[in-house]
UniProtKB/TrEMBL annotation:
This is Triosephosphate isomerase. The active site is at H97, E167. Substrate binds at N9, W10, K11, G173, S212, G233, G234. The keyword Transport does not apply. GO terms for molecular function: triose-phosphate isomerase activity.
Length: 251
């Protein structure tokens, strides 16, 4: 079983000085930890990845992007190529976050192409999936996850280059989460879907839970079968909270 991955998605928050200070704080805590039970990743806004990556180099703290374009370069004003993120030292890229699917109309095929672009540059694609509240209420959450995995998983996905993040949209930033039993059920379903699409890799692909993860619920969520880590939004903006979430992993 791979080590758990605790990933922080800073979204559109923090300027250079405060972001660098937060990253340094986390890097210091990680550097002082003997044999950590987790991989720790932060995904700052693209504007401050460069100073942060330089500030934490060698500490073990991983740095990632929140999105990338699917093309290697070209006439795409305002976009960022996977190679540009890799060039700054990023090891991971979040793709297909529900906020990008909603705000920018990203569909599964685009997410798969972005994931493949990140992987082609040697980075790990964190592919986000998850149902809306209406879909959940209609009992369609499993079908939605199945469809998103089928459409968003690129060919050539492996345990090394792919992470799935299950983020029910209604749980993001709301303080609400599914019950432990519901999370366990959904993650088992996702594992089964991976076994259909990438049989040889399915067991090793990490499946993160995201949506209102905080220090008070992290221990329970991270102890569940098939929960291989967390994708944390709001609570990743405070070093104490983000660190407490990582510390909640049972040794
Ligand atoms: O969207 C998320 C992480 O990608 C979750 O955000 P919150 O942890 O703020 O609910």
């Amino acid at each position: 079983m791979a080590r758990k991955l605790i990933a922080g998605n800073w979204k559109m928050n923090l300027l250079r000085d405060e972001g660098t200070a937060l990253a340094r704080d986390l890097a210091l805590r990680l550097a002082r930890t003997v044999d950590p039970a987790f991989d720790l990743l932060i995904c700052p806004p693209a504007t401050i990845i460069a100073p942060i990556a330089a500030a934490v180099a060698g500490s073990g703290l991983l740095v990632g992007g929140q999105d990338c374009h699917s093309a290697p370069s070209g006439a795409h004003t305002g976009d960022i190529a996977a190679r540009m993120l890799a060039d700054l030292g990023c090891s991971h890229v979040i793709v297909g976050h529900s906020e990008r699917r909603q705000d920018h109309g990203e569909i599964d095929l685009m997410v798969a192409e972005k994931a493949r672009a990140a992987q082609a540059e040697g980075m790990v694609a964190i592919i986000c999936i998850g149902e809306t509240e209406a879909e959940r209420n209609a009992g369609r959450a499993p079908q939605i996850c199945s469809r998103q995995i089928a459409g968003s998983l690129p060919r050539g996905a492996t345990a090394e280059n792919t992470v799935i993040a299950y983020e029910p949209i209604w749980a993001i930033g709301t303080g609400r989460t599914p019950t432990a039993a519901e999370v366990a059920d959904t993650h088992a379903h996702i594992r089964a879907m991976l076994a259909v699409h990438v049989p040889a890799e399915a067991a090793g692909i990490r499946i993160l839970y995201g949506g209102s993860v905080k220090p008070s619920n992290a221990a329970e969520l991270l102890s569940l079968a098939n929960v291989d880590g967390a994708l944390v939004g709001g609570a990743s903006l405070k070093a104490d909270d983000f660190w407490a979430i990582a510390q909640a992993i049972a040794k």
